[in-house]
Amino acid sequence: MESLNSESNDPNLQGRAQLKKILVVDDDPHFLELVKVFLDEIYLVDTLQDGILCLEYFRKGKGQDVDLILLDVSMPYKDGLGVCRDLREMVPNIPVMFISARDSKDERLAGYMAGAQDYIVKPFEPGELLSKVENLFNQQAEVKKLAVEGRSAAVAFSSAMAQSSDMGLMMRFVDHALELTDEGSIASAIVEACDELAQLKVAVCISNTEEPIFWSTDGPCPPMELETLVMLQESGRIYEHDDLVQFNQHPVSVLVKNLPQDKMDRGRITDNLPLLLKAASTCVQKISSTARLTTKDKLIDTVQQLTGDFFEVKHLLGQEVSNMISSVEKELQQVRSEVEFMGLPESQENKLFDCIERASNAADMSGEQLYEVSRQFDEYIEQLRDLL
């Protein structure tokens, strides 16, 4: 079994390094030489004389730069159909074109079932072979382009789902926190929200009382964690040290112990947590306000502060929801426009469209939840003003 390698003797190899490489496998050495003459002006060509050598070639890692395999169907030792089936396991992304003297429907169907992308019948003209090779390369380039677009659509879809989910979580947290009556319950709610947001392991400090409230994902905080939370309270709104990040929004601090390394996930969390803490801080101030309503002056100061805090949180939430809905709709529109070109089976396409519809509905629901939270804020503001 002899291997003919055109590359090793090619003096212009370096200058042709950017050319696509074709591996031709046929047991007829004269046919191999003829095909090499047809293709060698445009492509790099390797030749092998049977299927066993072809499989060994790829097992030894020599075929990493091969862009196309031209494979004879009728060969000794192992026929082209069996070789192709093995190649689909070994190198599924390299296209195969069968070369055969047979042109029956059954022969072509067998080639397709074995995993080939095209089929050419001997004898053929040089122009026919070149045309088929060029068409196959163009088709593969389009497949790769659609794969990239598919990944882009998947990223956009995931981002849209994450945004709508995050904002829904934010609305539920605010709605729940407004009903709480003590700082410990708010600390626990923050821990639960962080877990739902991204399975974050956190420690929380609320320092609005004589004895600060501490709570963590694992329950009570160990001494070093307490010290760290207190030590970093005055280190700015966000303090980062490797995977350890503390978010501060007086009187609430959250120490995140496992912030993801993924850039998109990390950015999503650093965008959402400050808003969550701002809402939590306002709810804490609401709880503690009753203890400060001892004089008319303190009453006025407290009402003015809380009213300002409620308006600020309401504005921030409204802005975030508006931006989220706009971003989600833009990204989902991108997904919708790309789905029809992705070549998905109808069942998968319908399933994806159902997911898109759910993401859009989730974004709309966040808008409805914002309306309900805003209504509650307005009620609290009116109740505060009635005190004056």
Task: Catalogue the unreliable spans.
Answer: 1-11, 293-297
Number of helices: 10
Strand order of the largest sheet: 1-3-2-4-5-6
Secondary-structure element pattern, one letter each: EEHEHEHEHEHHEEHEEEHHH
What would you call the quaternary organization?
Answer: single chain
| Proportion of residues in extended strands | 5-15%
Q: Residue share in helices?
A: 55-70%
Average pLDDT metric: 78
- How many strand segments? 11
The biggest sheet, with number of strands, parallel, antiparallel or mixed sense and barrel status, is: 6 strands, mixed
User: Rg to the nearest angstrom?
Assistant: 33 Å
Q: Report how far apart the termini are.
A: 99 Å
Q: Specify the structural class.
A: alpha/beta
Global geometry:
elongated
Task: For this entry, give a set of tags.
5-stranded antiparallel sheet; 388 residues; alpha/beta; 6-stranded mixed sheet; 60% helix
Please explain how this structure is put together.
- The model is unreliable at 1-11 and 293-297 (pLDDT under 50).
- The protein has helices at residues 29-39, 51-59, 80-90, 105-114, 126-177, 183-198, 223-231, 263-289, 296-339, 346-387, and strands spanning 3-5, 21-25, 44-48, 68-72, 96-100, 118-121, 202-206, 213-216, 238-241, 244-249, 252-256.
- It contains 10 helices and 11 strands.
- It has 388 residues and is an alpha/beta fold.
- α9 (296-339) packs antiparallel against α10.
